[in-house]
Amino acid sequence: MLREQAPAAAKPGVSDVWVAAALALALVLVYNSNGREIGSIDSQPNKFAARELLLRRTLALNHVIGAIPLLADRPSFVLDRGGRFRSAYSPVSSVLAAGIAWPLVKTGLLDLRAPLAANVIAVLGASTLTAISVAFAYLTARRRVPRGRALLIAAGLGLGTGFWYAVSQTLWVHETAILGIALAVFAFARPGARLADREALLLGAGLGLAAAARPQLAPIIIIVLAGCVVLWGVRAAVLAGSIVAAAALAMMLCYYRWFGSVFGPLIVISADNNTLHGVRSSFVFDPAGFAGLLVSPNRGLLVFSPVVLVALAGLGAAFAEGRRAPLVWCALAASTQFVLYGTYAVWWAGHTYGPRYLLDVLPLLVPLAAAALARMRVRSLAALAAGAALAWSIAVSATGAFYYPNDVWNADPTDVDRDHARLWSWSDMQIVRCWQRGPSPQNFSLFTRDAFRTPKAGS
Prior knowledge:
Layout: H1 14-31, H2 44-56, H3 62-67, E1 77-79, E2 85-87, H4 92-106, H5 117-142, H6 147-159, H7 162-165, H8 174-188, H9 197-213, H10 218-232, H11 234-259, H12 266-276, H13 287-295, H14 301-304, H15 309-312, H16 315-321, H17 326-342, H18 362-375, H19 381-402, H20 430-437
Antiparallel strand pairs: 1-2
Helix pairs in contact: 1-5, 2-4, 2-5, 4-5, 5-6, 5-8, 5-18, 6-18, 8-9, 8-18, 9-11, 10-11, 10-17, 13-17, 16-17, 17-18
């Protein structure tokens, strides 16, 4: 049986841009089909900051704390040097989400004082940024495989991973950082092509966005820039690196102005998180962290999204192409970031559904998945296994989007942040608990008047 294989350096055409746009629109609709925000303690300040930016032209959260005083006790809400409450995380996500929601506000479709307006801003911003990331992943894959296979890769990434049930559902910083990595991979992973200045600038813009949103991605940024030097020379790396440096410097100046430290309040938050999650230090070399990120029954990436194994099958192609090709650098960047997350003491990411941290590296695996699918026969055993993995991954992701947190798994029967052994329980899997407990009663709460309009007096 002959292999169906794309040209070695297929260039996406105008029609592929339209396909990518349609794909992004379709994903926004899917991501919002549950009609709710799946928030967390960490994501709340960013969504309120986005609303405050639209409502009062400020990122300060004093009005929010005044309305909901209990939020002041959460470590993600911090006081700056001027006595203003701010998000402990990068403001970039809030600014982007505010920009995405602005047309709804300007046209009067969204009342910023509506009870659930901040939730609408959060899910609209997060789902849009996530969908755009997947669209760029499609264009990246399209360089190596035919359109149908590129769409399968996009479906695996956008619907078969935490991009659906986590990244797109609330305003973390993940959605912004992942968009930056997706842009960078689109510019970087060009098989057999020279990196023009405009592409180097796009690479820098993507890495700069990731750096400004989530500095924890420094290993990816450093490795990709090193690969840029090897593949395309110092000029391209300097162009890209200068944008990254400018973005990092801007964030450091912002943090210094607000908190008196170029690192912001991250050190204080780390100490609070250690206490909250029952660990003694932020980083520890423990094999459980590395194994847990991949195969923990309640957090493992390969348990919740086995479709990722398709990308791992592309490692052979990466080594075959060698260090003078982008595949091996994408694999190296993803592996280095995995090592960092594996040594993080709270590798399970607190109260959540499935893996969260490794979602940051998934755009780097897209070229590897494309290389694997380019060699895969249509009716082979490998293709059947990949199809089964895709089906399971999408089913598990849909479960998270429509069922979590009705399972109450993270707190029942004990708090997983204290009882870490539960992360390894095959007899009480979070996925199964979700199926047993049924859909979340919070579904479709944003399809109501309270999400878009202020209640009438006396109603």
